[in-house]
Amino acid sequence: MESAEKIKARTEALHALGLDQSASSDDIRNAWRHIAFHGHPDQAHGDCSGFTRAKEAYDLLRKEGFANKGSTTGKPRRPKLRRRIITLETSDIDACRALLNTALPDRSGDEDISDAELMCKSDHVPDAVGFFGRHLTFFVPTPVHQGPNRVALPTSVLAGSRRTETEVLNFQSNDSGSGEVVVPDNITARKFPGAKSVRIRFDADQQIRDEFWLAH
Length: 216
What we know:
8 strands
């Protein structure tokens, strides 16, 4: 199992080469060749800062086997499916909050109360979503509460729609705190276009997100 520090270092190395987590070994080699030529001090009027940073990044990726052709014994293999986590846009989060608030008592006269304050402790909105192929995991920073809970989710994250589609899911919890809810397959098929499965992690801190990254 890789450490979070090692994953972070690899991500930063890819970024230094102008690449993201989906980059292949060919992408890495081609990016380095481009920078090695155009960013070389002889071509950059003596400025070697970008060249040095890119070389260090390429050396790290090559050492871990991510810049090698084919696969070599003892070297890590790139998974067919790559895990990634994205932070939801503010517009997505606001749309989820607005949907929850439409079901609350009318408090339109309370002009000084924000949408976040209108929500009660058993209402939840995610702030990030993890992707593993077409399997989705929503990360909710708030803990579940014993009894009925509601969570509003952006359902169009795989659909490429410019307009955010949201859905409120209701569930009962026997306990309070952290936990995971698996959305039933029939709801996933109807409400989350393109998704194979949907999970919701509550009280999701950085450790839980790291565990998602590191899971096999």
